[in-house]
Amino acid sequence: MTITTEDRKVIREVFELMEKKTTHMLPEVMVNPVTKYTSAEQVQKEIDVLFRKFPLILGHISQVAEPGDFFTHDTTGVPILVTRTQSGELKAYLNVCRHRGARLQNEPCGKARTFSCPYHSWTYGLDGKLRGMPHPAGFEGVDRSQLGLVELPAWERFGLIWVMPSVPDHEIDIDAWLAPMAEQLTNLDLGSHFVFRKWELPKNMSWRLLLEGFQESYHFCHAHSTTACAGYLDNQSVHYNYGPHVRHSLPQPNIEALRGKPEEEWDYRPYFLTQNYLFPANFVQVQNDHVYIHTVIPTGTGTCVFQCMMLTPEEPKSEKALKYYTKNYDLIRIVFEEDFVIGEGIQKGLNSGANTGFTFGKYECGLQFGQNAIDAALEGRLKI
Ligand code: FES
Ligand SMILES: [Fe+2]
Fold it and tell me: Quick check: pTM over 0.70?
């Protein structure tokens, strides 16, 4: 793991801010209307735009390492089948048969040579082409080349699988989209990591509330007073807004060890937590020696699903390593739950009328950047 140019910039900036006894602040507070969290119309628009027309992280490349490996994904409301062809290409399809629409693959994951529909056994290749059907005489004259599986845009970048859950009407440049985060994500080498844990939690809160829990550190020493607080300098964050993505770096108390050291001797990762927001609802949360990948997906008004993968640099080989990562996993589940309990509590109070808007403070830069990017996408000003 090397230290990047941007990592050095973050460290310099943290020291400067500490010297001035301040932290990253935006010029203004921002008021976000509460209706954004309660309106059925709003959430439907968000699903239609943010969760259809932008790429979401749906997995790790190890889940489809070999030709024929597949997994299905339904949380977005779109039935998705992700697989790898014989020639090694990653593909995502609508998990829907082209005969009369049956769900093609019911297993959550597995290995297949072809996909055969459970209804009348129309069979598709890994490349999505319609290969055959029983009693084909009854379909004479039908152009089979038009009845392949419907393909969705899918990419493997930085060891992760990204899928856009709709058929686009234009060419998409994923590399340009992720370019501002590329140096950092490349440096993480997530492709060689191991999926140590993978879990999914339905929550009774707007997806926005869940998202916001990962966009500021102002709450750390309050909501996480006995867990995460001690691990970080209180309310001392550096944010880089790459509209729409945001890098949020949180220094740990041990950063003092770098003070006065020549820059060539600096290291970054042992001294920071980095929460990378990748628009619209993905996070790459970088800990000292492992990484969490989250995707937050709305499932209705005031409900969402939190999906998470814990990636470790390798499969734990010793009892000691296994214990170490298990302990970290157990702790993060507690910390995340502290956020979720608060989020579900907020949701319950939303209709009370106590607030017509939420006040995003000058410290809560990630909230302001994130909301601005979401608004831009919903108003058609931001597109991939
Ligand atoms: S619906 Fe799939 S084969 Fe008939
Ligand atoms: Fe939190």
Answer: yes
